[in-house]
Amino acid sequence: MSSCNVTVIGAGPYGLAATAYLRASGIEARAFGEPMAFWANQMPAGMCLRSNWEASHIGDPRRALTLDAFRDLKGNHIGKPIPLDRFVHYGLWYQREAVPDVDLRRVTRVEQNGNGLKVTLSDGEQFASRRVVVATGIGPFAYRPKEFLAIPRELASHAVDHRYLNKFRGKKVAIIGGGQSAMESAALLKEAGAEPEVLVREASLNWVGLHARLHRLGPISKLFYSNRDVGPAGISKLVAAPHLFRRFPREFQDKVAYRAIRPAGAAWLRPRLAGVKISLGHKVVEAAEKGSLLQIKLQDGTERLVDHCLLATGFRVDLSLYAFLAPSLLQQLRTVDGFPVLSRGFESSIPGLHFLGKPASWSFGPLLCFVSGTEFAGMELARVVKHSRKATNGNG
Ligand SMILES: Cc1cc2nc3c(=O)[nH]c(=O)nc-3n(C[C@H](O)[C@H](O)[C@H](O)COP(=O)(O)OP(=O)(O)OC[C@H]3O[C@@H](n4cnc5c(N)ncnc54)[C@H](O)[C@@H]3O)c2cc1C
Hints:
single chain; binds flavin-adenine dinucleotide; about 20% strand; alpha/beta
């Protein structure tokens, strides 16, 4: 069986940045995954990024592969907010420049192998790897509330199940949720000629970007806001420093994390929502098939009969949903509420097994849920791997 030093699973922003930083530190790394696949296939066409320009560069050890460099190379064609298709092109360009040899095969198994790990690929190839970095994103964690578990996907689907929303033209669609995904889906559905209604559990909506002026006050803004763009004034600075964030008591971390990433829509969406019915304080208590339609009962006793229900209900990390992790690994992994407990270098309780992206956010804070965390993640991972004994045992 062949062997390698580090295997990176995932070719989204985290996996690509991790591979680039490892290699820049002289560490041999193999990368697997379909570049930018989640963004290209599981986000709605026509969407724009909620994160701003400065927070949307994929971390690069040379600091050369920025959105600005991409725009300058290709012509000035990226608007603000950043359109999804342009961001996907940027990610694919980053991949070609930084990790041109990404292997498109899927990883089907990661299991223990003596002191290291064994990786199995979709075509049956197996190899030993000293370390495995899991950067496979949030796709498998799409959350369906229990009221919808028995409803077929033709009637109630999660937002990640759709690339094109124009198939709902002329249809009545209920959208469950109160965050960016719900609001942007509602705008896109309306623009596609559907009849959306957003059902929001909470009594009010949150918006980000309402105080854009505060970000333009030069050095004063820098005191309160980090260009990582996660969270409001003050919290933004703390979240941008994961090593500091980790030192606070858990209860405080949880509160700050919630405040930083609570459901909220981007302020630039508001004009596009004119004419969309948004019903606040409407919690779903039951859903049932009624012929070809879906009946939704709400806590206030009212009902809706719709052609389709779109669940913009977010993602809940649960490592057992990463089907490639062997059951024996899962049994030994230390987790809290489905998240791995990670130490320096994003290493889990199984030596040599690392997690990046949202699964790392319980240990390193909400920065890790966003593209703006890729620079920190790549640097921290490469630093720790480079200085560990495990990596200096050889490089092949
Ligand atoms: C609608 C929506 C809008 C968002 N908008 C923003 C935004 O504006 N800004 C922002 O920062 N974040 C945004 N996010 C969050 C975004 O999902 C994460 O920031 C980002 O995807 C994290 O990147 P990642 O590399 O962890 O995962 P992903 O980009 O999901 O990449 C996962 C990779 O893993 C690969 N993979 C999975 N399983 C396997 C396997 N078994 N074998 C091999 N490869 C595998 C996939 O092919 C893919 O390459 C948004 C999320 C959603 C759902």
